[in-house]
Amino acid sequence: MAKSVLVRCPGCRREHTYVQQRYPCACGAPLTVPLPHESSPVSVRYRSWATAWTEVRCPSCGHHGQWPQPEFDCACGVTVRLTARAAESAGEPERVERVERPPFRPLTIRTSYDAVACAAQFLRWLGFIGVRGLVPRPATGIDLRGPTVLGLVNATTLPARSREIETLWLHATLESASAIAFALAGFDRGSRHQADDLGLPLFVLDLTGRPQPVNEPAEALLRRGASDADA
Q1: Backbone phi and psi for residue 116, each to the nearest 5 degrees, phi listed first
Q2: Is the model's pTM score more than 0.85?
Q3: Which of 27, 154, 157, 182 could bond 119 through an S-S bridge, CB–CB 3.0 to 4.6 Å?
Q4: Per-domain boundaries in the chain
């Protein structure tokens, strides 16, 4: 069965399921172009022959053939390519553009459910794929979950404590995921020191639904987005 991956368009942030394409080798065996493990989707504005194709070895006969790079067209008009190979050609290099994130659309917070929904929307905006809110909060104390990220949302009127940060970090470490914490009333001194030591991003939520970074890891995540965040 062909492998599939979730891919977010860098232009409109819409999620797509990309399925590996099968091609017939000259020997008759089917082969697929392997998907890169460490790359983020990019939009292709200018094509060149050399960078639109990649060399793949047939596992059956050993023949090295040229096959199309894994890519697809989004409904917004962007051609999205999944490639970790440097774009180059015999002449001018192919221009591959990373599209800037659109402005975040805040979600007004009136209830604890709104706080979780706002934080989930913010993580998706940063580029984390498949993030969903867990309401009501499970016994683990984890409010947000995605394939590569776990999140805490303290929606009470008291600052988040170091115990919450430690619990979040432990769960994320066990699942090899990024850990990110949000709080309406901020974080106490102990939780901030602990988060700084662990490199865990902290964001404070205001009632207008605009998360604000509290520490340097949060500032770095806001600048780089999920594609470059440390897992």
Answers
A1: -65, -45
A2: no
A3: 182
A4: 4-97, 112-228
